[in-house]
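Action item from last week, closing it out:
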Amino acid sequence: MKLKSVLAGLVAAGLALALAAPSAEAQSRRDSVVLGMVLEPPGLDPTTAPAAAIGEIVHLNVLEGLTKINRDGSITPLLAESWTVDPDGKLYTFKLRKGVKFHDGEDFDASDVKFSFERAKADGSTNKAKKSVFDNIARIDTPDPHTVILVLNNADGNFLFRMGENPAVILDPKTAAGTATRPIGTGPFKFDDWKKGSSVTLVKFDGYRNAASVKMRRATFRFINDPAAQVAALLAGDIDGMPRFGAPQSLKQFQSDRRFTVEIGATTGETIVAINNRKPPLNDVRVRKAIQAAIDRKAVMDGAMEGFGTPIGSHMVPSEAGYVDLTGLNPYNPDRARALLREAGVTTPLNVTLTLPPPQYARKGGEIVAAQLAKVGINAKIENVEWAQWLSGPFKGNFDLTIISHVEPLDIDRYADPNYYWGYDSKAFQALFARYNSATNPQERLKLLGDMQRQIANDQVNAFMFVLPQWAVARKPLKGLWSSSPIFANDLAALSW
């Protein structure tokens, strides 16, 4: 009897211990994290390729810039510890942090900044900020290893913000050429492994200047573009969180599950039906206006985004200074759409191709848009493509219509580039943008931003739909995940269990 009592006590104690102790998986994850991402990037160099998915992995984690854009949109020092700006807004003096090293042991200094920016503005550069940012830099002086002086051709009130975006990250001359496949930077994490089609893994950089504050030793990004698979991966514990969850129809399921937290935020992503302005009859503004008038933004948001999103009428979002609400300029009106097509001399049905990348806002939203266009005589044949195909097709100008979210902040400058993929070539807009770049008075800059929004809305360059919302879903113990994205990044150094 005594032996049975002892054994029973041991069993009970063991059971209690087992219930109280975290699982092996939980224990292994105390210093690691697995995050889900919708899209796999085509490479890992944000200074040569435009895909926002690149920044989701490397920006702030592996590669750093002079300034940091935080989750609330504020700007703080990063590789630069301080800066001054001359009154005319054309001369910036950055004081760099001392003792910073790249992951391969190379010292960081002013020569790396000079190299990175000269590379970005060189002939043949594919940096997406070449024209808007780096071509505006007239001179780069490095009077000592820890001082960089940038002289601009024209004042730019957004310059410090631009220095915190991923096209402005700093690379070392010795390793820059290999960044697309093996990035080497100064950030809190080092590149470890890329399993193509599956995941990218980063590991903590023990030589980081503030390594003690970084809680995670390993971070893995898994690529899951199918919404149902995202739900399954979260429920099974295969991923710990998804900062840009792509299955809004499943949000209520996670909101009612005490194991998870769900945060709903916003991005700077303008979701548009991009129109190839070079191709007839799409080069006729009346046809482009017909496309916009045929689209019921609310129906698209209800059907593809579970009602989330904010309608837009031009290429800015309400959270950006200078935003003008132009949704009433060309509202949903199928009868007007048909009349515009007749006025343009278009014989219906007008056959076009609607190219859709993987995200749900494009795939599911595209089906709704195609059905709406059909009602006014536009037959949009859907072509589903993977992200790499979208970059090599529509983004190179080979498309009729496509649906995409432009997530870079303050990216209305793309309309000043006639070579950009939608092919808008407007001298009037280019003149407005030049005036905006040279203006130093804040009120004048805001007015010019409004004028630029009205110009592209009146020219109906694209069909403007809604602001891309952000849903962050994570296991409840995980803290620090971004739930809003002023830039598309994941600050892994802010994560902890």
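Closing note: Confidence is low (pLDDT under 50) at residues 1-27.
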